[in-house]
Amino acid sequence: MSAVILATGDLAMDRDVYDESFAATGDVLRAADIVFGQLETSFAESGVRLPQARHAVLARPDGAAALGRAGFDVISMAGNHVLDWGNAAFFETRTHLEAAGIRVVGAGATIGEARRPQRFTLPDGTRVAFLAYSSILPQAYWADERRPGCAPMRAHTLYEQIEHDQPGTPARIHTYPHREDLAAMEADIRAAKDEADVVIVSHHWGIHFVRATIADYQRDVARATIAAGADAILGGHAHILKGCEIIDGKPVFHSLCNFATDLRMDPAHAASRSFNEIRVLAEAWEPDFDSLYNFPTASRMSIVARLEIERGRVTRAGFLPLHIGRDAVPRFVAPDDPRHAAVVNYMTAVTGEAGLNARYRIGVDMVELELAA
């Protein structure tokens, strides 16, 4: 019998009762063999907000236990919020997660810890390893030999002026991976594959809020990840869905959007320059001061990635469509619900717009990706 691994989008609860965030999904999560998530906040009593942190909410310590009760087994802290509240809050967050029975991947006291995989053994003996990296990195959020932080997969940006005689005209934007980070990631994956049957890699990457677009560096990193031995890629950060692709028969989820992510807004925030600079990236984004979910309209559609594993390999892959309403609670939607079709149609559209090769088929237990492609 196949084992089931589920992977959610971003997690950043900000409410009085954290368990409310999982009221509609906890039964499904707890029934899976392994549940993975990406953390976008800190669970700590206090912290000192770093000046390079853009949007930072300090969550209460009991948020970690809520994730444990919801069914999460492994959490990536490799992201652009890992050190928002300083080193002490980082270590406290990790301690609370581990106390809740959740393993942390992608971040550590040193770069060696941050690059260390988390390993699981499934009921049939299949060995699974998780690794996590971030390309979205405020200055000094990545770990090194003497500094805590996350495992980096940095990228460089080059702006090419198209019309050299026309100052101020739009430029072509080129991105490409940081060579040393790419080589380190490849070595990590090969080493993990030597000891595991299935390697799953999380990448916190991409261009947030912009419909469909996949940056060039993501394509390079995805190919390198699979070529090094990964069996699936889980993408996060964009806060909207992006398309999927199949590389050498392996599924790549470029963005799982959000899962339990609360975002309040007040008139001052809505009028701020920083918000309106980001707001224009989305297709439609209207502030709602009475809502817990102030994200673009497209962010109401989300997914949970679903992998079936048997006898040492991924046999099926796909996703479970979600709808997230004004209360910021994710809810699975059944195939006969129009919101299910909306998610599948959106995924089909953005996959095609990005030139990705995934095809989707509505199955009995999930929307399937055709892995033979």
Q: How many domains in all?
A: 1
As a percent range, the share of helical residues equals: 10-25%
In whole angstroms, how far apart are the ends?
24 Å
CATH architecture: 4-Layer Sandwich
Low-confidence stretches: none
- Please state the structural category: alpha/beta
Fourth-tier CATH superfamily name:
Metallo-dependent phosphatases
Number of helices: 9
Characterize the main sheet: 10 strands, mixed
Percent range for β-strand residues:
25-35%
Mean pLDDT: 97
Strand tally is 22
**CATH class type:** Alpha Beta
Calculate Rg over CA atoms: 19 Å
Choose one word for the global shape: globular
Oligomer: single chain
Provide the CATH topology: Purple Acid Phosphatase, chain A, domain 2
Would you kindly provide a written description of the structure presented here, covering whatever features stand out?
- Strands 1, 2, 5, 6, 17, 18, 19, 20, 21 and 22 form a ten-stranded mixed sheet that branches. A six-stranded mixed sheet has the order 8-9-13-14-16-15. The protein has a two-stranded parallel sheet with strand order 3-4.
- Helix content is 24%, strand content 31%.
- Helix 5 packs parallel to helix 6 (216-228).
- The protein has nine helices and 22 strands.
- The radius of gyration is 19 Å and the shape is globular.
- It has a single domain (3-369), classed as Purple Acid Phosphatase, chain A, domain 2, CATH 3.60.21.10.
- The model has no long low-confidence stretch (mean pLDDT 97).
- By secondary structure, it is of the alpha/beta class.
- The longest helix is centred in the middle third of the chain and has 17 residues, at 179-195.
- Strand 8 (118-121) and strand 9 form a beta hairpin.
